[in-house]
Structure formats: C-alpha cells, structure tokens
C-alpha cells in the first residue's frame, strides 16, 4: 500500500513537470526531413494553421485522365506536420480515371461522397481486390500497394482519401514509365512492352529518352 502511494506520488510529480508539446506546425521555409519540417515558433501559430480550405472547390478535370487529385499534405497544410495524417480530394469526371499509383508512405482510407467509384488494389501476392463504392462507402488501401479509382458510368464522382502520414507520397505508374526520362529501350526491356507502344505512350504523356 505504502509503495503504491509512493509510486503514485512519483507518477504525479513526474507528469506534472513533463512539458507536453501539443503540436509542431511546419515552418515550410525549413527543410523537409523524414521526421517532418521544423516547428514554427509557437508565438507565430494561429488558428489558420490548423485549417485547410483548399479542398472546398472542385478541381478542373479537363485533362487526359478526366480527373484531378488535389492534395492536402503537409506542404499545403502545415498544421499536419508530425501528426501522421493528411487528406486529398479526388474529382472524377464521367469515366474519369486515377491511374494505378502508390503512396509509399501511408495507408489510405477512401470516403466516397458522390457518384459511383470502381476502386481496387493489387496485393504483393498479385491478387486484385476491387469494388464499386457508392456515396457514404469507404475502402482502405494498404501502404505501398498499387491501386486505382475510376468513375463508373456517365456520372461524375467525388471522394476524399485520408492518409496515415502527413506526407504520403504519390507515384503514378504510367507517369513513372512514360512521363519520365527512363529510356525507351530500358522501358521496353524491363516491362516487356512493345517499343512502338512505349514510344506512343511517351508521346502522349511527355516522356523522353
Ligand atoms: C515569427 O513572427 C515574427 C514576427 O512577426 C517574424 O519576424 C518571424 O519571421 C516569424 N517566424 C517564422 C518562422 O514564421
Ligand atoms: C480547365 O482546364 C482546361 C485545360 O487546361 C481549360 O481550357 C479550361 O478553361 C479550364 N476550365 C476552367 C473552368 O477553368
Ligand atoms: C533524367 O533527368 C535528370 C534531371 O533532369 C538527370 O539528373 C538524370 O541523370 C536523367 N536520367 C537519365 C537516365 O538520363
């Protein structure tokens, strides 16, 4: 009993002296590191640092994929720094496609707000898990796996993905292959695709080499 009380007093005194850092709003002028950005001085932090309004408006989907991804990662929303959390907005025109991509640094939870979205991912064991999602439905995409979203039918769709990192990263497979300077001979050799197809896709997506 005595030991118990001593322990409790010790615990109380140690926690009351602990300085708790509630947040570390990013100072975006500092360097981004694996541990995040340096903190803005607390005296400079305002309510606006914890609010992001950049996902309120629909994005322009007049482009090759008839869709747009608008990120609210730490670089756009400094209040997320160190919180292992971020979000984005997916606008899909009719039949719009978010091509196969991965987020190397985060799990994703997709929340559908409008339309019907065919979403899926491919596991490391090359098994495809896919589903048509309706308004109010959610799907999870485990970290690092290739996944996609497609608006089904003639309706546009809207969804908000939430990520388990302030900086999830985004790598789009087609852009990595056909919008980069990965040379056509090497793309052909490493993917087994026809060279004419590789050149055609590079022409469309702007790749070189
Ligand atoms: C903090 O605010 C002071 C005074 O407005 C300013 O001089 C300083 O550059 C600010 N620091 C950062 C990191 O924003
Ligand atoms: C959307 O983007 C396209 C292509 O860049 C442009 O022609 C069009 O004016 C834009 N629409 C709006 C409403 O900004
Ligand atoms: C691709 O381009 C980057 C910068 O533009 C350059 O540093 C890199 O060496 C290039 N890679 C190849 C394989 O040409």
TrEMBL record:
<dbReference type="GO" id="GO:0030145">
    <property type="term" value="F:manganese ion binding"/>
</dbReference>
<keyword id="KW-0052">Apoplast</keyword>
<feature type="disulfide bond">
    <location>
        <begin position="24"/>
        <end position="39"/>
    </location>
</feature>
<keyword id="KW-0479">Metal-binding</keyword>
<dbReference type="GO" id="GO:0048046">
    <property type="term" value="C:apoplast"/>
</dbReference>
<dbReference type="InterPro" id="IPR011051">
    <property type="entry name" value="RmlC_Cupin_sf"/>
</dbReference>
<keyword id="KW-0675">Receptor</keyword>
<dbReference type="InterPro" id="IPR001929">
    <property type="entry name" value="Germin"/>
</dbReference>
<feature type="binding site">
    <location>
        <position position="101"/>
    </location>
    <ligand>
        <name>Mn(2+)</name>
    </ligand>
</feature>
<dbReference type="InterPro" id="IPR006045">
    <property type="entry name" value="Cupin_1"/>
</dbReference>
<dbReference type="InterPro" id="IPR014710">
    <property type="entry name" value="RmlC-like_jellyroll"/>
</dbReference>
<dbReference type="GO" id="GO:0005783">
    <property type="term" value="C:endoplasmic reticulum"/>
</dbReference>
<feature type="binding site">
    <location>
        <position position="147"/>
    </location>
    <ligand>
        <name>Mn(2+)</name>
    </ligand>
</feature>
<dbReference type="GO" id="GO:0000326">
    <property type="term" value="C:protein storage vacuole"/>
</dbReference>
<feature type="binding site">
    <location>
        <position position="103"/>
    </location>
    <ligand>
        <name>Mn(2+)</name>
    </ligand>
</feature>
<keyword id="KW-0964">Secreted</keyword>
<feature type="binding site">
    <location>
        <position position="103"/>
    </location>
    <ligand>
        <name>oxalate</name>
    </ligand>
</feature>
<protein>
    <recommendedName>
        <fullName>Germin-like protein</fullName>
    </recommendedName>
</protein>
<comment type="similarity">
    <text>Belongs to the germin family.</text>
</comment>
<feature type="domain" description="Cupin type-1">
    <location>
        <begin position="53"/>
        <end position="199"/>
    </location>
</feature>
<feature type="binding site">
    <location>
        <position position="108"/>
    </location>
    <ligand>
        <name>Mn(2+)</name>
    </ligand>
</feature>
<keyword id="KW-0464">Manganese</keyword>
<dbReference type="Pfam" id="PF00190">
    <property type="entry name" value="Cupin_1"/>
</dbReference>
<feature type="signal peptide">
    <location>
        <begin position="1"/>
        <end position="18"/>
    </location>
</feature>
<keyword id="KW-0732">Signal</keyword>
<dbReference type="InterPro" id="IPR019780">
    <property type="entry name" value="Germin_Mn-BS"/>
</dbReference>
<keyword id="KW-1015">Disulfide bond</keyword>
<feature type="binding site">
    <location>
        <position position="108"/>
    </location>
    <ligand>
        <name>oxalate</name>
    </ligand>
</feature>
<keyword id="KW-0325">Glycoprotein</keyword>
């Amino acid at each position: 009993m005595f030991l118990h009380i001593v322990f409790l007093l010790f615990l109380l005194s140690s926690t009351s002296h602990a300085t708790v850092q509630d947040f570390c709003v990013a100072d975006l002028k500092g360097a981004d590191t694996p541990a995040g950005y340096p903190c803005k001085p607390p005296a400079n932090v305002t309510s606006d640092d914890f609010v992001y309004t950049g996902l309120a408006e629909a994005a322009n989907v007049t482009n090759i994929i008839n869709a747009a991804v608008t990120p609210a990662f730490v670089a756009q929303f400094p209040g997320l720094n160190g919180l292992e959390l971020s979000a984005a907005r997916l606008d899909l025109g009719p039949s719009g496609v978010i091509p196969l991509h991965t987020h190397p640094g985060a799990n994703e939870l997709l929340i559908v707000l409008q339309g019907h979205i065919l979403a899926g991912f491919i596991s490391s064991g090359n098994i495809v898990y896919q589903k048509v999602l309706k308004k109010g439905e959610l799907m999870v995409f485990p970290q690092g796996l290739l996944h996609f979203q497609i608006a089904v039918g003639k309706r546009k769709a809207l969804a908000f993905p939430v990520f388990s990192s302030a900086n999830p990263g985004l790598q789009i497979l087609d852009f990595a292959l056909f919008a980069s300077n990965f040379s056509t001979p090497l793309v052909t050799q490493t993917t087994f695709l026809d060279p004419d197809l590789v050149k055609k896709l590079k022409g469309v997506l702007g790749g070189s080499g």
